[in-house]
Each structure stands twice: as structure tokens, then as C-alpha cells.
Write a structure and sequence with these properties.
218 residues, Cytochrome Bc1 Complex, Chain D, domain 2, 2 domains, globular, binds heme C
């Protein structure tokens, strides 16, 4: 019996150790990311995207794109420059395994950023979210905005096989900013210009609405 237990423990250790070391290497590799992207990828500040629960394929593509300056951001280019392929693998696996959380915006320290939606009355906010949901699920036939859910999945959890990003519970400020970057052609790392073509057809009102809807999705 004791032999059996020892044997069982040995097998258990064998099974667990590679897992823990991968998790540990992920945790080590993200040490320099925590300041902006938060503990376990749930950033507090609305300009820093949450990374928790994002799919691995999308995360690693973004890191390579920053390295190559295909996605232009001086801060992230600097952060990504030092990462090896192995680091990127560990980091992407680590964040993909975390759970995204909604973080209540800090009370009234918003100063005067351009997020007018937060100052809206609850009724306007509800209307805005409804408009965002409509756009997300059905697109806009008149202006030929495609339905976002077709690529990002109906529940906005993305498509991990294709590397299409999850969008739910992301910070509204970041979503608005990155959609506007696509619209202005400042963010150009989307294959076949999928997102540039989409964002070009969107009004600012639609960008704000769909972002509010997505940020609100738990
Ligand atoms: C000083 C703040 C800062 C630090 C530190 C930082 N980041 Fe970022 N990160 C940003 C900002 C700002 C953006 C959005 C930039 C943009 O618009 O392209 C971003 C974007 C990203 C994205 C793209 C997310 C998305 O949804 O497209 C990934 C992935 C990422 N960072 C990973 C990391 C990793 C990994 C580290 C640590 C090695 C790190 N970051 C460290 C500020 C930071
Ligand atoms: C044809 C497929 C397709 C459609 C339709 C589409 N997207 Fe995307 N979207 C993508 C892909 C692919 C990416 C990632 C590009 C990359 O690899 O850098 C992306 C990226 C994004 C990002 C950046 C995520 C991040 O973390 O930085 C946002 C935000 C986004 N899409 C919102 C939308 C919205 C809102 C709609 C609908 C109005 C939409 N998308 C419609 C394929 C699509």
C-alpha cells in the first residue's frame, strides 16, 4: 500500500512539475508588464488593454507585430523588443489562462477625457448599449458595417483558432481608441485590412456605442 502511494505521488509530481514550471515562467515573464496591464492581466487604468483571457494566437501576433513595428506604439515596441520567442510563448499562454474581470471605474477622477458616455444619464447609457448591441449582432446594412459577431463570435469571446480577439469586458476607453486608430489607418496590423475597412464605415457614435456594449458584457 505504501509503495502504491509513493508510486502515485511520484507520478503526480511528474505530471505537475512541467505545468507549474510553465506557469512560473509565464509569471516571471510578465513581471515587467504588471505595472500597466495589472495583476493577471486585469489592468486598472482604462488606457491599458486588459490581456486576461485573450487568446494565445492573437496575443503572440500582437507582440511580434510590436517587435517588427507593424503595430506602432513606442512603449510596447520597447517592451516587446527584449522578448524571445520562448518568452512570447510563455506570456501568451499565461494571459490566455487568466480570467478577465470587470473593474469598476474609479469614482469621479475622470478629469476631462473624451469619454462623454460616462457622463451620460442612465437612460442614454442604456440606449447607447442597445445601439451597440444592434451593431455588434447585425451590423449596419445602410453603411455596410459588417456584424462584428461574425468574426469575434456572438458572445464576443473571439475565435482562438483564427486568432480573432475576444472583446468582452475590455476597457471602453481602449476599445474606442483602438477602433479610431483603425479608422484613421494608424493601426495597420490587421490582415487583409479587415478592421480598417470595418472601422472606416463606422461613425464616432457607433464606435462609442459598440465599445460601451462590449465593455459592459460580463
Ligand atoms: C508602460 C506601460 C506598459 C507596459 C509596462 C507594458 N504595456 Fe503592453 N500595452 C501598453 C499600451 C498603452 C498598449 C496599447 C498600445 C496600442 O494602442 O497599440 C499595450 C498593448 C499591449 C498588447 C496588445 C493588446 C491588445 O488587446 O491588442 C499586448 C499583447 C501587450 N501590451 C503586452 C504586454 C506585455 C507582454 C508586457 C510586458 C512584457 C507589456 N505589455 C508591458 C502599455 C504597457
Ligand atoms: C472579417 C472579420 C472581422 C469583422 C467583421 C470585425 N472584426 Fe474586429 N478584428 C478582426 C481581426 C482579425 C482583428 C485582429 C487583427 C490583428 O490581428 O491585429 C480584429 C481586431 C479588433 C479589435 C482590436 C482588439 C484589441 O484588443 O486591440 C477591436 C476593438 C475590434 N476588432 C472590434 C470590432 C468591431 C466593433 C466590429 C464590428 C463593427 C468588428 N471588429 C468586426 C476581425 C473582424
Amino acid at each position: 500500500m505504501r509503495k502504491l502511494v509513493a508510486c502515485f505521488l511520484a507520478v503526480l509530481m511528474l505530471l505537475i512539475s512541467p505545468l507549474t514550471s510553465l506557469a512560473e515562467s509565464g509569471e516571471k515573464a510578465v513581471a515587467s508588464c504588471v505595472a500597466c496591464h495589472g495583476v493577471k492581466g486585469n489592468s486598472q487604468a482604462p488606457i491599458f488593454p486588459k490581456l486576461a483571457g485573450q487568446n494565445k494566437k492573437y496575443l503572440s501576433k500582437q507582440l511580434y507585430d510590436y517587435q517588427l513595428n507593424n503595430r506602432k506604439n513606442p512603449t510596447m515596441q520597447g517592451m516587446a523588443a527584449a522578448l524571445s520567442e520562448k518568452d512570447i510563448e510563455a506570456i501568451a499562454s499565461y494571459y490566455a489562462a487568466q480570467t478577465i474581470q470587470q473593474i469598476a471605474p474609479p469614482a469621479a477622477d475622470d478629469e476631462d477625457d473624451d469619454e462623454e458616455s460616462e457622463a451620460d444619464s442612465p437612460i442614454n447609457h442604456a440606449e447607447q448599449i442597445k445601439m451597440g448591441e444592434m451593431l455588434y449582432t447585425s451590423g449596419n446594412l445602410e453603411t455596410q458595417v459588417p456584424a462584428c459577431g461574425a468574426c469575434h463570435a456572438p458572445d464576443a469571446r473571439g475565435n482562438s483558432l483564427a486568432g480573432f480577439p475576444a472583446l468582452r469586458s475590455q476597457h471602453v476607453t481602449y476599445l474606442v481608441s483602438t477602433l479610431k486608430q483603425y479608422r484613421e489607418g494608424e493601426r495597420q496590423n490587421d490582415a487583409a485590412a479587415m478592421m480598417r475597412k470595418t472601422a472606416k464605415r463606422m461613425s464616432s457614435e457607433e464606435i462609442n456605442a459598440v465599445s460601451a456594449y462590449l465593455a459592459d458584457l460580463k
